[in-house]
């Protein structure tokens, strides 16, 4: 079906806002019910380079998402994309003001630039390289839980998932842990809904911060990832790459931990089994990735020539997003996809994307989430969600689906030191 007969339909674009960011599945079910074809949308909120009310196409079926991931007509180049964002947004020329040096990284470039930017990093993120980090990651999880030991309730997002995933990315990249508060706030501005002024201000702060850090790394002899970048790329390229790793490298994992916990809470039988048998954790994490898909929509792609996807014509000049969270619930690919089943490992999910832009951090993300749940189960035997569903606040982002906070309890037992 994919890439065959063309059939253009004129429909009102679906307007996607906060309800979609909170839970995209009702929209995906509706699209599936209408035949699952690529659909015109408007993304209400802006983020980083994306202006608000951007018109685009949404690809949702597993087969179509796979097709686009591997078709070079669907391009990524931030410089070519900026005028298309302007052309597809009511903000028009003002959309160009969202540009920043930070975005010219591997996630936003095609070969040969993409290859040149990704190649120096591949070795640091292989499964084998990441396995050697297990001990350090375990210590970081223990330290994050020690910080909430003795509490009745704690915020799983702000008190555990973020501090822990930030400490892992700081350790991996070689970012000083004491700078976390600042860069975390800049990343939140850039990847969330922000005014153009706040966006420009925090993007500029991020550029200055990373430039200075990379300058220091260049002359040092450290083996961390930023040192590697500082020595193998020129400064603007290294800054943009460092930003890509930092921005993509902790929030998605933190979001997976929180939405994973929420999903377990909604499936008490699965949660009970997991809490009584930690050997099930790796399978449970894989199923959380499929079922929750923390990267809801892909980053942008665009077509410079009219392309047919799943029988629908996507006109030249269109912006295209791939709905990984929809593909991962596609009944044509997965049996009973809405059911969360920790012992049904379906590794063919697309939570980490696919094709040349597949997630470089996937082994690290899996390790982090496995270590986190292992530690939570061991140290918090009665852990339960306390925040009622109606009070949950979600990030206003089409890409990063995550909770702002999630109260859980009881926390880990007080450590011997604290009791003394
Ligand atoms: C649960 C955690 C994570 C999820 C669900 C996730 C998901 C994804 C997805 C879906 C993509 C492809 C986007 C697209 O094609 O438009 C991607 C790309 C990327 N991810 Fe991750 N990611 C996670 C963790 C990480 C971590 C820990 C790092 C850093 C160490 C990282 C760094 C990146 C980078 C740099 C790219 C761009 C790769 C390229 O374009 O070649 N991610 N990620």
Automatic annotation (TrEMBL):
InterPro entries: Cyt_P450, Cyt_P450_B, Cyt_P450_CS, Cyt_P450_sf
Keyword Metal-binding: yes
PROSITE patterns documented for this protein: CYTOCHROME_P450 (PS00086)
Domain of life: Bacteria
Keyword hit for Heme: yes
GO molecular function per UniProt: heme binding; iron ion binding; monooxygenase activity; oxidoreductase activity, acting on paired donors, with incorporation or reduction of molecular oxygen
Keywords: Heme, Iron, Metal-binding, Monooxygenase, Oxidoreductase
Pfam family, one: p450
Similarity annotation: Belongs to the cytochrome P450 family.
Protein name: Cytochrome P450
Lineage, top ranks: Bacteria, Bacillati, Actinomycetota, Actinomycetes, Kitasatosporales
């Amino acid at each position: 079906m994919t890439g065959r007969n063309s059939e253009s339909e004129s429909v009102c674009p679906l307007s996607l806002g906060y309800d979609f960011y909170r839970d995209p599945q009702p929209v995906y079910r509706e699209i599936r019910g209408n035949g699952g074809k690529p659909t015109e949308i408007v993304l209400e909120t802006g983020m980083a380079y994306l202006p608000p009310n951007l018109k685009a196409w949404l690809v949702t079926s597993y087969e179509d998402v796979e097709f686009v991931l591997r078709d070079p007509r669907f391009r990524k180049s931030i410089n070519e994309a900026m005028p298309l964002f302007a052309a597809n947004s009511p903000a028009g020329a003002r959309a160009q003001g969202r540009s920043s040096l930070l975005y010219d990284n591997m996630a936003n470039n095609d070969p040969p630039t993409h290859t040149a930017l990704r190649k120096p990093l591949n070795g640091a993120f292989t499964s084998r390289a990441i396995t050697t980090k297990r001990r350090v990651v375990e210590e970081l999880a223990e330290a994050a839980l020690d910080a909430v030991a003795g509490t009745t309730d704690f915020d799983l997002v702000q008190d555990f998932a973020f501090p822990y995933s930030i400490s892992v990315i700081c350790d991996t990249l070689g970012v000083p842990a004491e700078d976390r508060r600042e860069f975390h706030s800049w990343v939140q501005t850039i990847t969330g809904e922000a005014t153009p002024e706040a966006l420009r201000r925090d993007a500029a702060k991020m550029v200055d911060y990373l430039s200075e850090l990379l300058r220091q790394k260049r002359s040092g002899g450290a083996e961390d990832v930023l040192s590697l970048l500082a020595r193998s790329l020129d400064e603007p390229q290294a800054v943009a790459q460092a930003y890509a790793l930092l921005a993509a490298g902790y929030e998605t994992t933190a979001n997976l931990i929180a939405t994973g916990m929420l999903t377990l809470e909604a499936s008490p039988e699965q949660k009970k089994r997991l809490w009584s048998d930690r050997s099930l954790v790796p399978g449970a994490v894989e199923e959380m990735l499929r079922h929750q898909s923390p990267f809801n929509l892909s980053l942008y792609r665009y077509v410079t020539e009219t392309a047919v996807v799943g029988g629908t014509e996507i006109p030249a000049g269109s912006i295209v997003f791939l709905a990984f969270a929809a593909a991962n619930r596609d009944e044509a690919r997965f049996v009973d996809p809405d059911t969360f089943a920790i012992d049904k490992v379906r590794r063919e999910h697309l939570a980490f994307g696919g094709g040349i832009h597949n997630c470089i951090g996937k082994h690290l993300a899996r390790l982090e989430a496995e270590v986190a749940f292992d530690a939570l189960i061991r140290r918090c035997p009665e852990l339960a969600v306390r925040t009622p569903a109606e009070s949950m606040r979600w990030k206003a982002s089409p890409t990063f689906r995550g909770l702002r906070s999630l109260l859980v309890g009881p926390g880990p037992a007080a450590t011997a030191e604290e009791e003394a």
